[in-house]
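User: Before I run my own analysis I want an independent prediction to cross-check against. Here's the chain; please return only the structure tokens and, at the end, one sentence I can use as a sanity check.
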Amino acid sequence: METTLKGQVALVTGGTKGIGKAIADKLSAKGAQVIVTARTAPESNTNGHHFIAADLTVPEHTEVITKEILEKYRRIDIIVNNAGANLSPGGGFNTLSDEDWYKDWELNFLSVVRINKALLPIMLEQKSGSIINISTGAAKQPIWEMTMSYSSAKAALNAYSKALASELGSKGIRVNVVSPGVVKTPLMMDFIENIATSSNITVDKAFQVVMDKVGVPLGRMAEPEEIANIVAFLVSSEAKYVTGTNYSVDGGASPTV
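Assistant: Structure tokens:
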């Protein structure tokens, strides 16, 4: 397949570890100049990604990212809105405060809206671009005792992505969603360890609890690189007729096709 991204400029938010790092490394290997954001710099940057320190829950930091991209590259071809996390405590509706809801929606939804709004004028001027919003299988299959506020924010992200794809399709800009299932990342391992601690069970038992709740026919977590492979395809010219679509990468966990 002709999937080179040579000459293209890509932004990957939350791109210093886990799924984001795998995506950034994959796009770089395909030839793109990759910009990554995170609150703190990575311990190593062997692939030479351009790092911008930013907390996406702070609206002003979106302006910092946009200004630096414009000044240094004067274009943006790919946006991968990967930054996100399940920030709230488990236990169901009664354990969630207003602050818990705000935190999940600020990081998992509003930060994406702000990044896209800031950078889309550049894509519109270019008459080209590809946006990937990283969602989750839990947006369609929320686990009430684990992901209630997180799932609701990601479900909103799915609806927003479809609307944005419809608006921008005639302008040469494609918008797609990738929805991972259970992925072996530092955040996921922390999540499982927190379940183990709060439930007074072993980490292995907590892992099995999560897998049983989600139901994964392939019987394992995904590797971050397996998510990156789908993203690299979707932003390439091989997928130039694909927009407004949500790709599940969940080992078969989704009960419907």
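Sanity check: The first helix runs from residue 18 to 29.
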